[in-house]
Design goal:
The chain is an alpha+beta fold. It is 33% helix and 18% strand. A hairpin with a 5-residue loop joins strand 15 and strand 16.
């Protein structure tokens, strides 16, 4: 007598057997059994690790024992009990966008998905309500043009997820081993110099991920960005996949026009930018090709060593040619390639375009860049910005990787009124170069990994340097609390990474930083070099001021940028020049 199992029954038995095996049991494989379902590729990749004598990481075991998307009922039950999660569930609930951040805060942080950073006014107003009703009464804009709501009690875990979806937004997959928020050019569709509007492609990638469970549970997190060559960059070269809009000239074997240049392997926290593959992608094929890159990574990413589990390390081990060949095999066709001289020069970014009033490509319309102090704002300010966008703009707002917000579609005759309302909210559309380029992660205020209170120290550095070392050129100062480099300290003109600084021989420490200089992005991409080690947080403002004064005093001309100045000196010379600067 034969028994035919339904597809659901087969998946259940596969999951049961996989979980039994992960707990130490022996999995008996029937002859010619083939894994099925959306988790099959992940389970097969895990099996190859163990078959080769490797040991799965705890996170891989947790995913195998119980897929997070099969555990919603337990999250609901925990919320009813106002119970914090144990480590395995703290990992699983990140699939829903919830991060339990104890001991920094006995609460969840909830991170959203906002493709291309584009919001409608009513969505921002709705998020303000959620921050007030379920969170700590503030919102954070992240360095992925996204929003986090913090201090969410366990009892509100499912409430906030459901309320986010009621707004037409998502938090699904915004944490753990998943594809994070899809970023794009903040001024997409309104930028006078853009080559392509990135919003349709970011949105298509966003929905492709949301609707395919097999794209969850990667070896590690994964970042994708689309840059349309606008005035404000998307930092696509810091992503695992960077799609960079380029114009291909005539006479190079392909139809001339606008394509995406494919770059792979960016992870600046590990000191690497995405590298140009030589591949160009017709925009309509971007999602399909990204999907196949992801499939290769799912199968071959490291599941035994979290420190080596990002895409970069597959590329390092294989080389780009082998990796691209594997992608082409999944596609069933060759990718388009052109020589470097086939690509027209891209327009340069404007490092000041994310703050202030700027003309759109639409006649008589403007975007207004609003400064949010290191990305933090209140529900009242969020509602006010939403109302300005509704009343004076086109109803839309854009978040940027520089932790601020743009209001688009403001007519010339309404700019003055809109700016006045922004100022009345306690915000600004004007900023010094120091404050305009200030970026900071959450810090130890809300993150257990951070060694310093980055947002508070960033404000202290800006306030001191504006008086003690004012400058007249764009500058990016990035403060990150730990090696995860959420604020990307390696790409700042000046980067600070949190550290516990020894103060005596007894092992006592205080908050502080290692200071780096010479980083850059886009046309000036480069990893910063360490200049000072173990600077106390209280001494950091004046130390940064000395570096800026050394630049101001010794630059070759008024046109020399900080990054050019820093790169033509060795570290010893830079330290000497900074140390020669007297106290302000």
């Amino acid at each position: 007598m034969s028994v035919d199992f339904t597809l659901d029954q087969k998946r259940y038995l596969e999951g049961f057997a996989a979980g039994f095996s992960a707990r130490g049991g022996q999995k008996a494989q029937p002859a010619q059994t083939q894994l099925m379902g959306p988790d099959a590729a992940h389970i097969s990749a895990q099996d190859r690790v163990t078959a080769a004598g490797g040991k799965l990481t705890d996170q891989e075991k947790w995913k195998r024992e119980e897929h997070p998307f099969d555990a919603w009922s337990r999250l609901v039950a925990q919320a009813k009990e106002n119970a914090p999660p144990k480590p395995a569930d703290n990992f699983r609930w990140r699939y829903y966008g919830l991060f339990y951040v104890a001991p920094a805060q006995d609460a969840y942080m909830c991170r959203l998905r906002i493709p291309n950073g584009a919001l409608n006014h009513w969505q921002l107003a709705g998020l303000a309500d959620l921050a007030q009703n379920y969170g700590g009464g503030y919102l954070h804009v992240t360095t992925r043009a996204n929003i986090q709501i913090r201090e969410v009690e366990p009892k509100n875990a499912t409430n906030i997820i459901e309320a986010i979806q009621d707004l037409g937004l998502w938090s699904k997959g915004s944490g753990a081993d998943n594809i994070r928020n899809i970023t794009g050019t903040p001024t997409a569709g309104v930028d006078p110099q853009e080559l392509i509007d990135t919003r349709p492609y970011a949105r298509a990638m966003h929905h492709h991920i949301l609707n395919d469970r097999s794209l969850y549970g990667l070896p590690r997190k994964f970042n994708i960005a689309f840059d349309g060559a606008g005035l404000i960059g998307a930092l696509e070269d810091t992503n695992d996949i960077g799609f960079q809009a380029v114009t291909v000239k005539d006479g190079h074997g392909v139809a001339p026009g606008v394509y995406f240049r494919l770059a792979l392997g960016g992870i600046t926290g590990h000191k690497d930018f995405a590298s140009d593959t030589g591949v160009i992608v017709p925009p309509g094929e971007a999602v399909e090709i990204a999907d196949k890159v992801l499939r290769v990574f799912i199968e071959h990413g490291d599941r035994a060593n979290r420190a080596k589990a990002r895409l970069k390390y597959v590329l390092d081990a294989w080389g780009f040619e082998k990796f691209i060949a594997a992608v082409e095999e999944k596609l069933g066709r060759k990718l388009l390639r052109v020589a470097a001289d086939a690509i027209a020069e891209r327009p340069r970014q404007d490092r000041a375009a994310h703050i202030g009033v700027h003309r759109q490509k639409q006649a008589d319309l403007n975007w207004i860049g609003v400064l949010l102090p290191v990305g933090r704002f209140t529900p009242e300010q969020a509602r006010g910005l939403a109302e300005i966008a509704r009343q004076f703009g086109d109803g839309g707002l854009r978040l940027t990787v520089w932790q601020n917000v743009l209001i688009t579609g403001v007519a010339n005759e309404h700019v003055g009124e809109a700016v006045a309302m922004i100022v009345a909210l306690g915000l600004s559309t004007q900023a010094s170069p120091i404050r305009a380029g200030l970026v900071a992660c959450t810090g130890n205020f809300g993150c257990r990994f951070a060694a310093a209170d980055t947002k508070r120290h960033a404000e202290e550095i800006a306030a001191h340097c504006e008086k003690a070392a004012p400058i007249d050129t764009p500058i990016n100062i990035h403060l990150t609390g730990c090696h995860h480099s959420c604020a990307q300290h390696y790409i700042g003109d000046i980067g600070l990474i949190g550290a516990r600084v020894p103060i005596n021989d007894d092992g006592d420490t205080v908050e502080g930083y290692h200071i780096l200089v010479g980083g850059g992005f886009g046309e000036d991409a480069r990893i910063a070099s360490e200049l000072y080690e173990n600077v106390k947080a209280e001494e950091a403002p004046e130390m940064v001021a000395k570096i800026l004064r050394a630049y101001r005093t010794n630059r070759a001309s008024a046109d020399e940028t900080f990054v050019d100045f820093a790169r033509r000196q060795d570290s010893e010379t830079l330290r000497r020049l900074a140390n020669e600067e007297s106290m302000a």
